Every structure is written in C-alpha cells, then in structure tokens.
From TrEMBL:
This is tRNA threonylcarbamoyladenosine biosynthesis protein TsaE. NCBIfam families: T6A_YjeE (TIGR00150). The gene is tsaE. The keyword tRNA processing applies. InterPro entries: P-loop_NTPase, T6A_TsaE. One of its GO terms (cellular component) is cytoplasm. GO terms for molecular function: ATP binding; metal ion binding.
Length: 133
C-alpha cells in the first residue's frame, strides 16, 4: 500500500510530520529516503518534537550518528561504510524497542524489520512529494 502527499513549503511539511508522528507507536522503524536537502532531518526533528515536546533540543545526528530521546532513536547512517558498524552503534537493539527514525537507511536494509515504514521524499524548490510504503 502506498500513500502520496504533495506538500508546498516547510510549514506543510512540518504539519504533515506532526500528523504522521501521532500515528507512531514503539517499536517501529521509519526509514527516511531522499537526496540531500529534501528534508529528512526536518521531518525527523518535527516527529521528535511532536512526541517529546516542542522545547526538545534536536541536533542533527550527522556527526554523532545517533541521538536518543527516551524511547525515540534518530540515526543518520550517511557516514556508515560497512554494515557491521550498525551493531556497534546499537541499531539492531533499538529497532526492537524504540520508535526508530533512520536517515540514509539503505546500508541497513538487511536488518530492517519487514514492517518498516519507508518514507520517500522528492521535490524541487519548496515543493515536496512524500510517498509512504
């Protein structure tokens, strides 16, 4: 089953992410696919703030690779070069218990659960198309 959303601007993208966040229950995995600048981090940040409170500080995990928020884990796998590193950073463990948001999830495809929610983000300028599979 696929759902498609056409969004115009960051406010519509954030509104979509807030509504989407309210559907998530642990344990679940959300794999965020999209090129650089498509809004993967902004969607993850909005999901986290929706579930943990607007005052939650949500830095990008680009350099730390993972940020944890008491029941929500946010991974950025862009810099992971080998699948064996996924165990070192705890991914197989947290996907069993947390709401797990993963940017650049392709390297982890062999360990992702069957029921992973795949969110594909494409677009130009301020317009985004989000496809959920």
């Amino acid at each position: 089953m696929e759902k498609v959303y056409n969004l115009n601007g960051i406010q519509e993208t954030r509104a979509w992410a807030r509504d989407f966040a309210k559907t998530l229950k642990a344990p679940c995995v959300v794999a965020l696919h999209g090129d650089l600048g498509m809004g993967k981090s902004e969607i993850a940040r909005t999901i986290i703030k929706t579930l943990k409170g607007e005052d939650t500080v949500v830095p990008s995990p680009t350099f730390t690779i993972v940020q944890n928020y008491d029941g929500i884990s946010h991974f950025d796998l862009y810099r992971i070069e080998d699948e064996s590193e996924l165990t070192e950073i705890g991914l197989p463990y947290v996907i069993q218990k947390d709401i797990t948001l993963i940017e650049w999830p392709d390297i982890a495809k062999r360990i992702l659960p069957e029921d992973t929610i795949h969110v594909y983000i494409t677009g130009e300028g301020d317009s985004r198309t989000i496809s959920i599979k």
